[in-house]
């Protein structure tokens, strides 16, 4: 995948670029807003990672101009500003996701992954399937190997999100933001408990286990280990 | 101020008091003048009568009855206000301008008051009079009196006009007072409504100045100057938090990046990687503390007031309950949610959720297994209340005020994880919503309530 990283903090940029290259991506970089905008307009990228505070041209303005030029590259904002207000401003300006510094690299990768997949056009799905686990989005029913599984509404949303991102790492923050719509980190690790309950419902008594914990990152649902 | 009845405003009450005082003193002044004039007039009448009697008695002594009769007749001819009547021992008139001995209405000392009929411009009128009776030898009686009609007219004028003029004065005073206080109230209203807007977060608003250059303008100018200072300070604070956020997050970001990089190069099961893993967690905890501090500062600056909307506290409480219910069960605690009707307040949903999550988190942390924690959103006598009650050890009453201070961790909680900012954040979020955080005894346990005014 081809990516653009616009970040003025030299060390953070090097780390980010190296990390992304190690993960098998092709990365271009820019250290200020103007260069970033020129690059973004000159060639196609699958994803752009843009810092909000940039010299010459602020990250928000960069994205606004990009969108005004009809450029639809998925954009992930990186920011030292953590308030919900700042997030809203970032998304309004045309950003697709917002990640607050400091972030875990796996969190960044997981979000980039999610952004790139979202870009691929897919027909409106009414059924999701991972291995022998099926989720009917219309009747809100879940089945594993033909056995009906009883899910609470929130468990259903949690499973739906995991299955929509099957084969991808989904972090706890992503789950909190998408399933619970909370933009803060509860002190206790509440998500883990919800996952273990869901796991008890969909994996207990079945083989193989579909819902896996990715150490230091989050969770992933997939058919083949 | 709008909506307060006029008569309940301070300005109007002051005006009213002044009008009343003025009317009272005016009435007293007029009353005193009246009383004094009346006394002077009475004294004058009495003196005239005394003098005439003295003159007549002298005449009588010098020239006898004949002389007296002549003088009386002469005086009666061109007497203006003077009334004379000399009667014989049987009561028949001998001389004078009164037809018959009048019926005495009232006698004051040696003086008598009576009414008599007088021909004025061809018609008979009853006029009051005041006089004195003088007894002569041989049963003769002399009445010397003066017509007091004009005086009583003056008196009557006084007594009838006085209430009217006082009444008029009061009415005019009240109308004037009303207009004046309305004018004052309008100025105050402008100041009040602008202050309310400013308190609601529109810090750039300023109080309007009139062209009068009066005390209100001085007040408004001073307040405006104060607001400019506050705005400058708030902007400064925002800049500081923003740059602190940037300057602290960036190095923390690099630190975390380096640790992550190092972790990748190490064998996953070694002692070193466990150490580095712990260091990463420590960075995250540092960040969480730092985030909470920034959030508290933000909430206290009130900047988030601009991003408020209608929030249903019941739904919000239900969501937090749902988030924490499995964790509570895992810890052997029963987490209850008192079902409630929709309960709307104006607020920041994310901050309120976070505040409630902090309270629930604390309650679960400090309540031993087998305990019970109850979340409630209700409207009671105190107002709209969002509360979390547990039956854990509670907080002794003397420690409660300290519990909400930043970084204060009471002895009992020193060994559990946490930043020591949880309750301070709740208190700051409450203040942002014009609400307050109250810690009370749950008999046993702690009840933390966020009470919306």
Search tags:
heterodimer; A: 225 residues; alpha/beta; Rossmann fold; Arc Repressor Mutant, subunit A; 2 domains; four-stranded antiparallel beta sheet; 8 helices; 40% helix; B: 453 residues; alpha+beta; Beta-Lactamase; Helix Hairpins; Heat Shock Protein 90; 3 domains; five-stranded mixed beta sheet; rod-shaped
Short description:
The complex is a heterodimer of chains A (225) and B (453). By secondary structure, chain A is of the alpha/beta class.
Integer tally of domains of chain A: 2
- Fraction of helical residues of chain B: 55-70%
Name the helicity range of chain A.
Answer: 40-55%
Give the name of the CATH architecture of the largest domain in chain A. Answer: 3-Layer(aba) Sandwich
Structural class by SSE content of chain A: alpha/beta
How many distinct helices of chain A?
8
Radius of gyration of chain B: 48 Å
* Mean pLDDT reading of chain B: 82
Instruction: Return residue spans of chain B where pLDDT drops below 50 for at least 5 consecutive residues.
Output: none
> Distance between termini of chain A?
24 Å
Output mean pLDDT of chain A. Answer: 87
Oligomer state equals heterodimer
The ordered H/E elements of chain A are EHEHEHEHEHEEEEHEHHEE
Q: What count of domains describes the coordinates of chain B?
A: 3
Strand order of the largest sheet of chain B: 2-1-6-5-4-3
> CATH H-level name of the largest domain in chain A... which superfamily?
Response regulator
CATH topology of the largest domain in chain A: Rossmann fold
The tally of helices of chain B reads 8
CATH topology of the largest domain in chain B: Beta-Lactamase
How many strands in all of chain A?
Answer: 12
How are the strands of the biggest sheet of chain A laid out side by side? 2-1-3-4-5
């Amino acid at each position: 995948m081809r990516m653009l990283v616009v970040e003025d903090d030299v060390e953070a940029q090097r780390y980010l670029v190296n990390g992304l290259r190690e993960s098998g991506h092709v990365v271009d970089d820019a250290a200020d807003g103007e260069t970033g905008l020129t690059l973004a307009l000159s060639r196609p990228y699958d994803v752009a990672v843009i810092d909000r505070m940039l010299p010459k041209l602020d990250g928000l303005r960069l994205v606004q101009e990009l969108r005004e030029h009809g450029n639809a590259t998925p954009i992930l904002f990186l920011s030292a500003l953590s308030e919900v207000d700042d997030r809203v401003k970032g998304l309004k300006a045309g950003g697709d996701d917002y990640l607050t510094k400091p972030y875990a690299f796996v969190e960044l990768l997981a979000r980039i992954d999610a952004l790139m997949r979202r870009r691929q056009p897919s027909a409106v799905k009414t059924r999701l399937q991972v291995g022998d686990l099926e989720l009917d989005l219309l009747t809100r029913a879940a089945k594993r190997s033909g056995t009906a599984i009883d899910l609470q509404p929130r468990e259903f949303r949690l499973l739906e999100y995991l299955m929509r991102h099957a084969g991808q790492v989904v972090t706890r923050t992503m789950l909190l933001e998408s399933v619970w719509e909370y933009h803060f980190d509860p002190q206790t690790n509440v998500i883990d408990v919800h996952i273990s309950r869901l796991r008890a419902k969909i994996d207990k008594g079945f083989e193989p286990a579909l819902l896996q914990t990715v150490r230091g990152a989050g969770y992933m649902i997939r058919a083949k280990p | 101020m709008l909506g307060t009845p006029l008569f309940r405003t301070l300005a109007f009450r002051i005006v009213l008091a002044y009008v009343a005082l003025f009317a009272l003193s005016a009435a007293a002044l007029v009353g005193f003048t009246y009383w004094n004039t009346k006394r002077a007039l009475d004294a004058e009448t009495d003196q005239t009568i005394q003098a005439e009697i003295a003159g007549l008695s002298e005449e009588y002594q010098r020239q006898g009855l004949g002389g007296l009769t002549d003088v009386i007749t002469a005086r009666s001819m061109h007497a203006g206000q003077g009334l004379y009547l000399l009667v014989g021992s049987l009561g028949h008139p001998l001389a004078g301008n009164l037809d018959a001995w009048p019926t005495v209405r009232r006698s004051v000392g040696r003086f008598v008051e009576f009414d008599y009929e007088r021909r004025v411009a061809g018609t008979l009128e009853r006029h009051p009079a005041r006089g004195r009776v003088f007894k002569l030898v041989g049963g003769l009686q002399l009445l010397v009196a003066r017509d007091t009609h004009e005086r009583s007219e003056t008196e009557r004028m006084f007594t009838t006009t006085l209430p009217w003029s006082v009444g008029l004065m009061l009415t005019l005073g009240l109308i004037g007072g009303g207009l004046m206080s309305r004018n004052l109230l309008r100025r105050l209203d402008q100041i009040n409504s602008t202050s309310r807007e400013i308190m609601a977060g529109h810090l750039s608003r300023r109080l309007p100045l009139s062209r009068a250059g009066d005390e209100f303008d001085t007040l408004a100018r001073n307040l405006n100057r104060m607001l400019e200072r506050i705005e400058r300070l708030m902007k400064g604070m925002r800049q500081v938090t923003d740059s602190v956020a940037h300057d602290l997050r960036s190095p923390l970001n690099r630190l975390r990046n380096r640790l992550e990089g190092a972790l990748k190069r190490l064998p996953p099961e070694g002692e070193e990687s466990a150490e580095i893993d712990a260091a990463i967690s420590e960075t995250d905890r540092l960040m969480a503390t730092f985030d909470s501090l920034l959030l508290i500062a933000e909430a206290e600056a009130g900047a988030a007031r601009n991003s408020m909307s209608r929030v249903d506290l019941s739904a919000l409480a239900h969501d937090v309950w749902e988030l924490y219910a499995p964790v509570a069960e895992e810890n052997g605690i029963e987490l209850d949610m008192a079902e409630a009707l929709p309960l709307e307040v104006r607020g920041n949903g994310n901050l309120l959720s976070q505040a409630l999550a902090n309270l629930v988190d604390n309650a679960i942390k400090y309540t031993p297994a087998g305990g019970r924690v109850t979340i409630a959103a209700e409207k009671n006598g105190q107002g709209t209340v969002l509360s979390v009650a547990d039956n854990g050890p509670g907080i002794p009453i003397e420690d409660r005020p300290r519990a909400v201070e930043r970084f204060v961790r009471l002895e009992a909680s020193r060994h559990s994880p946490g930043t020591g900012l949880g309750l301070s954040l709740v208190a700051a979020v409450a203040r942002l919503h014009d609400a307050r955080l109250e810690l009370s005894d749950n008999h046993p346990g702690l009840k933390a309530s966020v009470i919306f005014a």
